[in-house]
Structure formats: C-alpha cells, structure tokens
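Note to self: the last two entries modelled the partners one at a time, which told us nothing about the interface. This time every component goes in together.
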Amino acid sequence: MSIINITLIVYMIASVAYIVREIWRSGAIKWISLGLLILSFCLNLTMVAKRSIEAGHPPFSNLYESLVFYACCTAFIYIIFEFVYNFRIVGALASVLSMLILFYATLQDDTIRPIMPALKSNWMLIHVVTYMLGYAAFGIAFVTSIIFLVTKPFVKKTKDDTGSEGKEILLRNFDKLSYKIVAFGFPFLTLGMITGAVWAKKAWGDYWSWDPKETWSLITWLAYLVYLHTPLVLPKMNINKSKASVMLSIWLLVAFVIVNFTFIGMNYLPSASDSAHIYGSQ
Amino acid sequence: MENVKQNKSQAVVGIKKDNTKQVNQGQSGKSERGNSNKVWQFFCSVKLAVVIILIMVVACILGTVILQEKTIDEYTARYGYGLATFFKVTQLNNVFHSYWFSFLLVLLCANLISCTIKRWRNTFLQTGFILTHLSIILILVGGVVKLQLGIKGGVNVYEGKTANYFLTQIINRKGALDYVKKDLPFTIALDDFILEKNEPKFQLVSYVKSKDKSKVLDSKLGKRQRVPGSNYKVTIKDYISDAELKQEPINTSDTPENPAIFVKLFGSEKVAAEGWLLAYDRNYYEDKKQNLRIEYIWLSSQEEVEKAINSIETSNTKLSVAVSGKGVSQDYPLDLNKVFKLEGTDFSVKMLQYVLNYGDRRPVEQQPTDNPAIQVEINGPEGPETRWVFEKFLDWDKMHPAKYKNLKITCSGLASTYMAKNTVRIYQSPEGKQVIVFIKDKHITEIVPWELEKKYAIATTDRQVMVSNYFPSFDFKKEVVKKSDQIGTPAVFVEVEGPNGKVSDWVFSDNQYATWYTDNNFGLVYEPTGESVKHFISHLRIIDNEQTVAEKAIKVNDPLKYKGYVIYQSSYDPEAGNYSGLQIVKDPGIPIVYSGFGALCFGVIFIFYIKPFLRKKLKKEAEV
Ligand code: HEM
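The predicted structure of the combined assembly is written out below.
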C-alpha cells in the first residue's frame, strides 16, 4: 500500500480516536488520539520530504504537491494549538479536514514535471509556506466555527466562563477560540501576500497586476480583515452578543470557502486562462 | 459593562470604551458644530471601513468574473452588445482602473487617516495599529505614483542586435488593442541568448475506449496499478531510455507454412538489391529503371508449376464463372462492356473495368502489376450485383457480402499479360521442383532449375540473380535493443491484465498510435510530456552615450537595473528561440510601496504576536 493511503487511513483512525475521547474521557485516550494525529502528520511530512527529494525542487510546484503540503500544515497547526488549548472534539474534524485535502490530492495528476523558470526563487518558498500555514489556521477556525454553530442551541448559558481544567475551553466559548486562531493565522496570510507581491515584482516586473489569482488572494485577505474589525462595529449597532457571535462564525465559514476558491476553485474562472499564477496550465 | 467585556475578549486589541469617549470628547470640543463632528465621526468609524472593504470585495469579484481589459469586439462576442455597452459605461471592463474604484480607495485612505489620527496615542502598544494603517496608505500612494509616473512595456531583441525603444500595450478609445512606442534613454544590446531545455520526460497514458477516459499512469517500474474506473491492470516491466526495435528473420519450422527466399540482385559483381520475398505476402521486387521484375511464386505441386509455366506465353486474360451445385462453368475473354450469357442459367456477366493494382489512382498503364482485378456486373433473378474479382485473392468473395453467393468468379492472366519487359519468375513447390523462368517481352527466354547461392544471369540486362537463402516457415523475431545510454526514443515494456488475460508488449515513445490490448478497448501511449524550458538567459549590455555602462546576464527572477528602469527576462521566441522577450518597467513608487509592505508585515506581527505577549507580561507585573 502506498504511503498516501496509509496516511489517509491513519488520519481516519485519529479522527475516530478523537470522537472516542469525547465520549469516554480518560488521560490515556487523550494521548492516544494526539499520538495518532502526530503519527499521521509525520507520515504526511514524509510524503512532502520524499516528493521534494524525488522531484528535486521545493514540493509545491503544482496542485498535487501543494495539496499534500496543505494537508500537512493543517495537521501541524492543529497539533500546535492542542498543546496550548484543550480543544476537545476539534481534533476529530481537523484530522478529517487533513484527510479530505489529502484525498483531493490523490485525484490530481501527480506526475513530476520540471519546474518552470519563474518558480525558481527563494521568495516562492517563503510565500507558499506562509500562505499554507495561514490557510491551515483558517481551516481550524472553520472547524471551530462549525462546532460553535452546531452546539450553540444545546449549550447552557448559565455556567461561568472559566472551565474547570484551566486550559479547557467550553464549547460556548468557541467563537472566541475561532477569533484567536484567525488572529494567529492572519499575519501568515499577510506575509504570504506580501512575499508573493515581492516575488511577482522580481519575476514578472510588477508587484501587483490585478491578475485573477492576485485579486482573489486580496479578497481572502479582505474577508479576514473584515472579520477582525467587525467586533468593533457590531456592539455599536445594537446587535446583541449572541447574535454577533453567530454572525461572525458564519462569516468565517464563508471566508474559508473563499480561501479554497482562491487556492483551487478559481482555476475554473473564465479569466483563468489569462492568469500567470494558475497551477497546471504550464 | 457587558460591551466592554466583549470587546476585550474579541477585538484585536481590547478597546477601552471610556478611553474612546475621552478622545471623542476632546475632538468634538475642538469642532465648532455638531454637524462637522458627525462627518468626522463618519470618516473615523470602523463601520465605514467595513462597508468600504465589503464593497471592494464585491468589486474584486466582479473584476475576476468579467474579463478585464479586452477589446470591445471580444466583449461583444462574449456577452452580446447590450452587456458589452453596459460594462463599458460602468467601467466594469476595467474595474481596477475605474473612477469608482479609485474613489473607493480614496475613501479608504481618508477613513484610515482619520481613524488613525483619532486613535493616535503615544503608547508603545499602539505601534502595530499605527503601522498597519499607515502601511495601507503607503501602498496605495505608491500605487498612485506607479500609475502616474510608471511605465511598463516590452521589446523583443534578436541575438546580436540592439534596441533603444519598447512598446506599451493599451486599449484605445475605440476599445481596440493598440501599441505605443516609447524611447529609452539608453540602448540595450543582446550579446547572447541562451535557451536551455530540460531533459525530455515521458509518460504512459492509458485510454479506455468504452468510457472515453484517459489517464496518466505512474511510470514506476514493477508497480502493478489498476486503471481507475476500469478492470485493466498495468505493470511496467522494463524501460529502455533509447530503444530500437530489431526484427530478425527466423525460420520456425521445416514444413512450408510461410515460404520465403532471400534474393540478391547483382549488377556487375556488386549487390544492387537484396531482400526477402515472401510467397504469401510481398512476393515481388521491381526495378523500374531496368524495367525488371522478380517474382517468387510458390505453388502446392509440381504439376501446378508446370501448368503455370506453360500458360505464361499462351495465357490470355480470362474470367471464369462457375455456379456451384450445377456443374456449370464457363470462361470468357477480357472484353469490356460485353454481356456474356451463362449457358443453362439465368445469369449473365459483364466486365466493367480492370486494374493492375487495386486502389491505385493512377491510370492503368502506369500501375504496377501488384493486385490485378476486374470489376464485374452480374445480372440474375434477383437483379444486378457488381463485385471486384481479384486475380491473387481467389476467395475474396467468400469473405465479403455478395448477393449471388453460389456464383464463383475468378480471373487470371491479367498479371502475365501486363508483365514488365524483363520478368524473372522464381517457382518453387514442396516436392522440391524449383525453376527460374526468364521472360522477356512475354516470351520465355530460359528456364533453369535453381540452387541456393548460385548466380544466374538475366539476359539482355547486366544483372544477375541469386537465391541465397530459403526459409520454409518465415517469421520475424522481434527484439528490442538499447541503442545508446542517452534519452533517445524511450520505450516501456508493459504488461496489461484485462478480460482477455495477460498480454505484454513494448510501447515506443515514437509511436504516435496507441498500442491496443487484445480487446481493442484499452490502449496505451508512451508520449513526451512536452518540452519544457529550464532556463532562458539574456546577456545584456547597456550602452549610454556610446559607452557600456552596465552588463548582466539576466534571467527570470533576476533582472537588470539601470537609471530607474528595470529590465526583466520575460519570454523567448517559441519557434526558433533566437529572440529574447524583455520586459521594461519603470516604477518610482517602489520605495514607497516596499516601505508599506515592511510596515504592514511588522505591524501585523506586532498586533497579533508581540502585543498579546506584552499585555500578558504587563498583567502579570500588575498582579505582583
Ligand atoms: C492589516 C491590516 C489592518 C490591521 C491589522 C488593523 C488593525 C486594527 C486595529 C488593531 C484596530 C483597533 C485599534 C485600537 O483598538 O486602538 C483597528 C481599528 C480600525 N481599523 Fe484597522 N487594521 C487594518 C487595516 C485596516 C484597513 C485596511 C482599514 C480600512 C479602512 C482599517 C480601518 C480601521 C478603522 C476605521 C479602525 C478604527 C476603529 C475605531 O475607531 O473604533 N483598518 N484596526
């Protein structure tokens, strides 16, 4: 069996372990689930490393390679966060997310092709890595928003804010958790965009040319910028706290759809044929 | 208090409401009227910021969904006249350089400036907020400088030539594409242009006909892979980087299943031509210049050989018609368009035309006597039928639909009637009778029994003929060999498992047709993945005032800068590869934009990483 299939399966098992952990809380299962996720992350990382050696260039020169790396980053960011906060059920969905991304990679053409001259730049490396870390964080925020929205009607409001375990975050505070994760990812997105601009200047002579891919990355950035500023606006508009949280969580779902559109979906735009940045159109 | 708490936990930086109020009061105190205070409030508000950003998002989406900066004709063709005009009026055909988008950006700037002024406090913790907001302004100002003072264009320079101008592309007032020539304050000389290509790569592509689906397979050796969505499995068993198919003739048995002879034709001691003649396949050699034809004729018995030799001179072209089961049979001479009645039956035949090489478009006189045939029209109880009758393929009618299946028609003599001036017939039969018959102008000049490795002179020509080998059962042994260590014509040896079991074969990269599996539903092609360019490098020299002032080998990602101009390697001549496409850019706004970039990067890092860290520390200190 190929490493990609093994990785997919381990992600799956990790996800199941996280669900078990939610039902039957014990220290042991907690470490098992985390361990499994770390294992699948390591497998995924091995794929990235192996690919990079086989291809002889940084492993993000086409959609397949980028997706494998994206899945890897998603697992990585989640694991980091789990060491900071007690995330509970998020792990189950995070590993499913990684798995789906990786599965989508298996549907792509994985032929190793020589890298085109414009991609031979160190800026490309920073650009892709920062972007992928940012995207990965937004993926986790997407997951926490879903959990917040789904559990909201069932969670009692009376209990006090602080959880019993200190690090433990209560389901009803998942909106705040989403915010923290976006705040963590946003600098990466910004750095990704700016390094992309600097690289474009070096390679094509212009840091910004309203290319469809560039424009969509701006849309993505603006979407999260709006998210970060709206908490300042909503209270002034007489929108109550609970409604505001719901609106912001929904906005995060939309924003993550935009992320994926920028990453993958925009290849299907009519203007895509004019773009210098579309994968696979070499 | 509820609001304060929420802001603290949710906003980028918790806003202290009371603080805000103080500042507001300070500001409103200065302003003379409540009205101007309201305008100020409006410009300062995050609400305005959010609204502007949301409108920008919508504009950006429109700007990617609607094709941008195309000619008016392209719009009309794609969207129709009405929409095209609408786009032109609303500037949706060039969203990002439209007046309304510029207005949005100006509004955004005003908003940013006023909110930054309003919230300006000289505390270290504010650094990020101020930097990020100022950075956006810097980037926008830099962008305006670019639009006003910057230029961007391109020029194609041939190797060894120079250029002192470049072209910029614009959409003119009429909505058509136009080029404007701009002079450079210096001259660019292209001393050398290097186009380096990657080693060609190849891929194995499968095609399932019934599903009309093709898929690039993994090129790994020895890996058994299922072709998705089908029942075929493919394993690449071997690979040769530069393969050649060698076909070696072999004899597989002593029973004459596929008789063949190797014939050498000598012209004054030297071999003029040589090759295999196969009784059941290509059985002749023709030398047009000498008007010479050599034929190899295999017949099943000695009598037949004699009969054939006897009929050479006497034979006339004839058509034989026989009705099976009735014992009726009749011969007719070649006489076009004459109706012959078949005695004792309801049938009549008529010869419509004859050819010497069926399918040859040339006039009959110019055709070689390769596949003679007569077209016959049969009239019978069920109406007329036309069919071709082939001299060399006697059973042709058995394999093809015919109305009168019981009517067996053959023809003979065409081949000998239309013989070359010099004809050499090499006869052979299983019992060992083997003779060469030399024919000149349809007359036999000599009949000699032949032996292997013996030369026989062909009268009135300077040629000699020799049969040097005889294989009763001729076959080809196919062998794929390695020609060189380089990548030349790669080939893979592939095993396919499918409904008809395992089949393996070599698939060559120079074969433009698919190699089909036995069910003719699954094909494989081994093809180059397209030539890709590794590097293209231009050795440039800048000449200013007749002096070389700069020199650099530029490539993508590594431009040359001179006098505020930056020269980029952007393209190359796709056909011959002997000109270099240079992009020439001048953008005085770059320092401003790049400081904006720096400020933005540092600003976001400060806000989201440094500031929370500092706050925690401060909080801890306060607690102590
Ligand atoms: C990377 C981009 C940006 C970041 C990180 C950022 C961050 C912030 C922060 C931290 C605040 C709160 C300041 C405080 O509490 O003292 C703020 C306020 C504000 N931001 Fe931004 N901002 C960014 C871009 C923008 C942009 C592009 C606009 C566009 C107009 C904008 C408009 C505003 C406004 C109007 C406020 C004032 C809030 C108020 O007065 O209550 N920001 N921003």
